[in-house]
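User: As part of a screening pipeline, I want to sanity-check one entry by hand. Below is the sequence and the SMILES for zinc ion. Please return the complex as structure tokens so I can compare it with the automated output.
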Amino acid sequence: MLNKAVFVDRDGVINEMIYVKEHGYVDTPSNPVQFKIIKGVARSIKIAKKLGYKVIIISNQPGMAKGYYAKKTFDLITKKMHVILEKSNTKIDDEFYCFHHPNAKLKKYRKKCSCRKPRAGLLKRASEEHRIDLKNSYFVGDGIVDMEAAKRAGCKGIFIGNVNSSITELFNKKKIHPHYIARDLLDAVNFIKNNI
Ligand SMILES: [Mg+2]
Ligand SMILES: [Zn+2]
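Assistant: Here is the complex for your manual check:
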């Protein structure tokens, strides 16, 4: 029998985004101190697992490609996430990251890959490794690219965020129809629970 999963984006779903003045927009945390788990995330993971879903991170992390931080720092951030969740007696089942960027500063990450969302490469790899039925799975994300990847992979997208007219227009243009619009991961998981 195939497994089912709640795939989750990382930044803005698991952890808070931070405002980076130099970049002029909210971005991924670039050190462990900036990495803060959003309230309710540990509880959400527990609920999803209790419902029989694997919880798997699917995330673009081009920070190293852009030269924002080293691999060592990324590993420390990941470690911090694991430690926090462990303290709440839960854990993520697996994590799949795309470290590439088409215009990467660092040559080893410069690639037009098939794993960077909106492409479905990471979802496909995760579904193969964990024998997951994509049709019966969800992808929760706060980015248009997440909903696009969900559509391409054939799983149900749950969008986290405020849907204003410009986002609606983008969704329509790309023919993306999220299954549900959620406030946060906890809201998303409760929706899944009520719709089994
Ligand atoms: Mg995100
Ligand atoms: Zn990639």
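Points to compare against the pipeline: The chain has one domain: 4-194. The longest helix spans residues 71-87.
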